[in-house]
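Lay summary. Proteins are chains of building blocks that fold into shapes, and those shapes determine what they do. In this project we predict the shape from the chain. Here is one chain we studied, written as its sequence of building blocks.
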Amino acid sequence: MKAFFFLLTLLVGLSTAAQAQMKDRNAERPGNTDPSAARVEDLTRQMSRQLRLNEAQYIKLRDVNKIKLARTEEITWQFQENTLERDAKLAELQAQYEAECGRILTPSQLSLFRNDQHHETVPVPPASEGGLG
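And here is the predicted shape, written in a compact code that computers can read:
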């Protein structure tokens, strides 16, 4: 009975210590470091519909999208105080992402992808309300 009580106390102590270490590890950055699976799947499905991906492309692009979303969150959190550095890192990440997509997509798909990317980054001018200036 003493051995059982000692073993139980030891296990509770070890699990408490392990939980404390995990809290310390995650204290700097709240939440889970991986993007949600739903966000990755939604983005990849949307790209699949627009670009008409085959199954192999879908699987490769899903992995690339997961990495991109995780790195985007990481960069945004890490450089939240320094917007210039954050924007530079995000632009670098976007260039790497486009290069990776260039390895996965066919030339016609890549053209559609770049066209979609261009439309997302170009700001739309506000519509005038029918007046003269």
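What the prediction tells us: Residues 24-28, 122-126 have pLDDT under 50 and may be disordered.
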